[in-house]
TrEMBL record:
Single biological process term from Gene Ontology: transcription elongation by mitochondrial RNA polymerase
Protein name (record): Transcription elongation factor, mitochondrial
Superkingdom of source: Eukaryota
Keyword annotations from UniProtKB, A to Z: Elongation factor, Mitochondrion, Mitochondrion nucleoid, Protein biosynthesis, Transcription, Transcription regulation, Transit peptide
Pfam family, one: HHH_3
Span list, region Disordered: 1-20
Length: 367
């Protein structure tokens, strides 16, 4: 049997057995050089010289491999641009944004530490946060650089176009942000309501109309159109018209007639409003998911949305008692609706409440 030439202390080659009696098969100088490079991860009594690491070696390691590296090398594992992106996220992200990357109390710990000690200056300082060890720190840095697919979709809202699951069709974000006024429209099985609201949350118009043909007897398209046309004729012109998008699923067979009714009204409003007020071929009618507004105002209980009546009553009260209320109402609107939302009222006016809350949520979410 031929043996691999074995290095002696004088770097001369002999034939023999390796450590612990392992037989080293015959090889060449290239194989020996490869074995010497591995002294980076193991020690040998005679081999103290380390083969120089190639450029980019550290950054080419996987997340699992990096998590095993010495703690002093966290910042060295990322490029300057990567470190800058990670630090920006750590120093500016809210607790809610961090919670999407790190579950549990770790996101709270980051915000608390940042509040007490100021912004993070380097990645290594992240290990001073309670509950953060080396492996946790590397994992968080990698998640910031490569967020989960769902998070990437939600963060598209920061780009040049507003692309979010709860609003459509796609409109340039700058156009939405420049909207001086919108009309928020909510329709139920018997009524339609709308709120005309400006960018500074001043209510210009706030009404509801009974629609007597809705869900009454056999479906007649001409009767629907007549009621909807009567409402559209009263709706003021605005930059955008926001329609509430119901979350009723096609899997609820018993609610199929209601879903068909809502989709029919939605389609007619798209055609009538776009045809009446469209400018330069740009969409001016959008839909906004009902549950998205509910989540914005913490009105969700599980998958169901509760009433926003109490929020509206508080907004009306603030408009009278505060010098700078969040939402302002003209005097005639306050007089017209002051008794409409009282607890003892027979009609709770849910569509009116929802129309105004949807308008406020639109401006809050668009920015």
């Amino acid at each position: 049997m031929h043996y691999q030439p074995f290095p002696t202390r004088n770097n001369e080659y002999t034939r023999g057995r390796g450590p612990r009696g392992t037989i080293l098969l015959q090889g060449n100088q290239e194989l020996y050089s490869t074995l010497r490079c591995r002294t980076l991860h193991c020690s040998c009594s005679w081999g103290k010289a380390l083969a120089p690491a190639e450029d980019g070696f550290i950054n080419s390691l996987s997340s699992e491999e990096r998590s095993k590296e010495p703690e002093s090398q966290i910042d060295d594992q990322y490029t300057t641009e990567q470190r800058s992106a990670i630090l920006q996220m750590l120093n500016t992200a809210s607790e809610k944004e961090l919670l999407k990357l790190m579950r549990g109390k770790k996101s709270v710990s980051i915000v608390d530490y940042r509040t007490k000690h100021g912004p993070f200056q380097d990645l290594q300082s992240l290990m001073k946060v309670p509950q953060f060890k080396y492996k946790t720190t590397v994992k968080l840095c990698d998640l910031i650089l490569s967020p989960p697919a769902s998070e990437q979709g939600e963060r598209k809202i920061q780009g040049s176009r507003l692309v979010v699951k709860f609003m459509g069709p796609e409109i340039k974000q700058e156009k939405l942000q420049s909207a001086e006024s919108i009309v928020s429209i909510v329709f139920g099985t018997q009524t339609m309501a709308w709120a005309h609201v400006t960018r500074n949350l001043s209510v210009l118009d706030w009404q509801r109309e009974e629609c007597y043909s809705f869900m009454k007897g056999p479906y007649v398209a001409s009767a629907y159109l007549e009621d909807i046309l009567a409402v559209v004729s009263k709706i003021p012109e605005a930059d955008f018209y926001i329609l509430e998008k119901s979350g009723i699923s096609v899997q609820h067979v018993n609610l199929f007639p209601v879903m068909l009714h809502l989709r029919t009204v939605e389609a007619m409003l798209f055609a009538l409003l776009d045809g009446t007020f469209m400018k330069d071929g740009q969409h001016r009618v959008l839909t906004m998911a009902r549950n998205a507004v509910g989540k914005h105002f913490d009105l969700m209980v599980g998958a169901a949305r509760t009433s926003g009546l109490d929020l509206i009553k508080q907004l009306l009260l603030d408009a009278v008692t505060k010098s700078q209320p969040r939402v302002s109402f003209p005097q005639d609107v306050l007089l017209q609706h002051r008794n409409r939302f009282q607890a003892g009222s027979r009609k709770r006016e849910e569509e009116m409440c929802d129309a105004l809350l949807q308008a406020i949520a639109f401006y809050d979410l668009v920015g």
